[in-house]
Amino acid sequence: MSKISVIVPVYQVEEYLSRCVDSILAQSYRDFELILIDDGSPDRCGEICDEYAKKDIRVTVIHKKNGGLSSARNAGLDLALSDDGSEWITFIDSDDWVHYSYLETLLKLVLSQNTKIAMCEMMKTEVFVSDEQTECSFRVITPTEALYKTGHFEIEAYSCGKLYHKSIFQKVRFPEGMVFEDFYLIPEIILNETSIAKCDAELYYYFQRQNSTVYTINRNSMIDKWEGYEHILEICKETGNSYLYDIMSNAYLFWACDRVRYAEDPSTRKLIIRKGRKLVFRFPKNAGLPFHFNRDLMQEVYPGIWSIYLWFHRIKEFCKGNSGK
To answer: Distance (Å, rounded) from C-alpha 302 to C-alpha 54?
Structure first.
């Protein structure tokens, strides 16, 4: 049997932690260690973690000074990599939970398809969803296919919802101090593989909290996401993957437009607008893409270009309307 290290960073999730841990301990696959990293949580999370460790020998708790999500995951990685008996690694966020067959299904996939990564679908939800019997169809996809979905805002850039061979993390760690640390590291990991096994069943339940970092749009988080996109594009250049480069630059443009609606701070909005305008001219091949976006966003981010587009559109419609006369 192959032992799996389940890494769960824990910070200020007292209300949700038991739901997460219970779903892991109830897995149909039993040969795993659960590493709970108490990242200096100010509530009762540390105590709850210790209580689980007393009840189940598979649970190990790390108490550390608060350093952020990446720091906590890296602490879990260090422990997992030092365990010679552990061969696989998965990450689960402490406010999420997983289907009872999550570990078993992903392990069967990597072993049967001889890959180093397997992933499942995520269900994004704001309410609790109980387990149901589920059928899992699967396929093997290329890194380009995986990141094509990332470019269109699917789940492939998340660290969660995947099973990794531990060798993948021998030389890489999550960048600390960043908000979008997944987006910076996971595409790089995917591009280093030749194939990924993909399960079409929703086995990971992604709990959407309104106060989570995903919903926090500020200047620092914007800069972090830009660095993530720049990092992916640089890798695409290095590997000569022009197809993926075009896809990700399109996604980059889309994201710059879309973020305006969430940025409440005026200086952040100005930063996004200024960056967005530069992106159109940086990726001229894709400059037509933003015209398919929400009109209100286009008017705000690219008012000059939008005016020109409307002018040409009106001329086109006028000519079309008069062509039969």
So the answer is: 58
Structural fold of domain 3-214? Spore Coat Polysaccharide Biosynthesis Protein SpsA; Chain A (3.90.550)
Query: pLDDT tens-digit profile of 88-104?
Result: 999 999 999 999 999 99
Angle at 255 between CA 238 and CA 235, to 5 degrees: 10
CA distance 248 to 255: 10
pTM: predicted TM-score of the whole model, two decimal places: 0.81
Q: Which residues pair with 60 in a beta bridge?
A: 35
DSSP letter assigned to residue 114: T
Domain ranges of the chain: 3-214, 217-316
Strands, E assignment, the chain: 3-10, 32-39, 59-64, 86-91, 97-98, 117-125, 138-141, 162-165, 196-207
pLDDT digits (tens, 9 = 90+) for 7-17: 999 999 999 99
Q: Please determine, for residue 153, whether its predicted confidence score (pLDDT) is greater than 80.
A: no
